[in-house]
Design a protein that fits this description.
single chain, alpha+beta, 6-stranded antiparallel sheet
Length: 131
Amino acid sequence: MSTSALSLLPEADRDYLEDKGYEHDVEQVGGFLHLIIHKFDLPEAYLPRTCDLLIRLPSGYPNGNPDMFWTRPDVKLTSGSWPLNADVPEHYNGLQWQRWSRHFPDDRWRVGVDGIDTYIAAVRRELSAGR
């Protein structure tokens, strides 16, 4: 984990990740912070049942909300189908990631209130839909 990049996360986010016991890395990549949560558990609708989860935090975060999320290895529904809008590969830092095109409206992001905890809860809600 890059100590200098980790320090770029707000203290509340660092505390949340530590309190939840998430094994994670933070990297500065261009204008984004990449938060990678390792061994992220997925609901029963998906295979594999764990993956690495990438959340790209935009410049200005937490005043701006993250958009979309990425997983590796590729995650499929137990039927063998790709999840809805999650069949596009993208490359970051030399690794291929599966992009989940999920857009959370800016008007739902509460500046000064929302953070990584809110975003991970939104990702979990989306994944629990099993689609």
